[in-house]
Amino acid sequence: MEPAPIDLYSLTRAELTALVESWGFSPVHAARLWKNLYLGLAGSPGAFHEIPVRVRARLAAETRIGVLPVGREMESTDGHTRKYLLDLADGERIEAVLMRFTGRVTACVSSQAGCAMGCVFCATGQMGYRRQLSTAEIVSQVVHVAREIHSAPGNRRLRNVVFMGMGEPLHNYDAVMKASDILRDPSGLGLSAERITLSTVGVVPGIRRMADEASPIHLAVSLHAATQEERAALVPAARKWPLDELMDACRHFCGTLGRRIFFEWTLIDGKNDTPAQAHAVGRLIRGLPAQVNLIPLNPTAGYAGAPSGSEAARRFQRILADDYGLPSTIRLRRGIDIAAGCGQLAAPQS
Ligand code: SAH
Ligand code: SF4
Asked: How far apart are CA 19 and CA 30, in angstroms?
């Protein structure tokens, strides 16, 4: 049987160099190839420059570029958000989102097809788990968004990536971290670790591993409730990783790395937006170098709750700031009309 071709998006620059050298070619060709892939954003060998014919022949025989075909794309009426439904080779589908803010462009990418964590208010959780994404499938989403904004008027560069699409990134730790290394490579996309954020439902061993491995990327932890009981009702994964263990892991992360941590709080009207709950979360995370992202609930088919109103959101924010010195932001509601908001990604399977 033919060996499966190697997806070039699965390789770090060191691995690509080793591969090209193993064929008996100069590492110079690997360096050029890397630039073609991540600076030229080449989606096919036809777009390669300065690669000799003998190297091309070997590449054609043994490698491929895992560009993910776009099944569908949608632009939000907000004018800032575009969502791509991408087809994977085995028929699974995932979604990636491009968000244009003033002065920056962000790619929100998926780490799994579906998700096993089952958070009640999340469309990805409602669809269930399909499979892990490979490093190449994660990198390919980012390159796709980079290509989109590069070819659009303004010719901008992608600077920010968030692992906040479908799936739980710390449930696919190795593939996600390798993808982030590839994205950060200074002679490729060159994304700064400062501008890559991973959001987790609270996978305690993964948070500890990030701390112990000195992962350079930002960590956001989805909290949503300040007591174990309330949290477990929204986030079933809390039964496996209880709140006190989660907070210990967060303290370990900040303490070991001397870095800030983000907490996410989906604001659900009348459920977790009362002043008492704002005080509870303030007490819970007081003392940590933390910032809170408040996300008014986005609609999903499987959950009946409503988003908190802006007054309740601002009241929550004021309590965190005035009584606990905690900075917070209220996330802009973007892309809701095309179901591209937080927790709304759920690719229909083909
Ligand atoms: N699996 C990761 C990252 C993906 S979701 C995690 O859970 O953190 C990104 C954020 O959107 C998380 O904080 C998640 O809790 C939140 N979210 C999920 N469903 C939502 C919804 N319907 N409305 C608003 N935020 C939601
Ligand atoms: Fe999975 Fe995150 Fe959705 Fe929970 S919120 S089901 S962890 S994607």
From this structure: 8
